[in-house]
Amino acid sequence: QVQLVQSGAEVKKPGASVKVSCKASGYTFTSYDINWVRQATGQGLEWMGWMNPNSGNTGYAQKFQGRVTMTRNTSISTAYMELSSLRSEDTAVYYCARVSGTVALNSWGQGTLVTVSS
Amino acid sequence: SYVLTQPPSVSVAPGQTARITCGGNNIGSKSVHWYQQKPGQAPVLVVYDDSDRPSGIPERFSGSNSGNTATLTISRVEAGDEADYYCQVWDSSSDHHVVFGGGTKLTVL
Questions:
Q1: Shortest alpha-carbon distance between residue B44 and chain A (Å)
Q2: Which pLDDT tens digit goes with each residue over A5-52?
Q3: How far off is chain A from B16, nearest CA to CA, in Å?
Q4: How far lies A110's CA from each of A2, A34, B55, in Å?
């Protein structure tokens, strides 16, 4: 079965960077785009961007342009999302999700809590 | 950018039908997807492409989309359906590309 397993919780100081991983299994990693979505406590879902694991092509929400980088390592079927210049407002659970069809997110990772605090 | 509008909350008694709306400009021309999210859990896709259900999702969950409103309908509501529900579209004209509604808290009375 399709599984996306994310790395563990992180605590970072303001101004630092965080890199979250998302390991895929149960399907051909390079056949489906990976999207990243975040959710602050008590808030809704916020889309950050997408990556094509085959080509490495990416697209980012304007809000995160210049601060986010999405990459992958196809040899280990793992996608990464790195967010830099962290601020307290970036404290959230970060999810990776696999896309299918008309950009429906049909499989999600378990989420990674990133806490930004001095 | 494209905006999706959902009511913050919907309440329904067990066994009744819940309808959660998602408003957007000419949303009927887009494919709408719906997610269920329970506290402390990742979202789960419950309806895709307006009205299709992924395998394992009960037939009680259905969707429709026309004009400026998409609707998620949950028939014979159960206590376990209590959750947040989000609609989502892909909008090529928006810098966001993937757009989520603000979410609706479904309360089972």
A1: 7
A2: 999 999 999 999 999 999 999 999 999 999 999 999 999 999 999 999
A3: 26
A4: 13, 14, 20
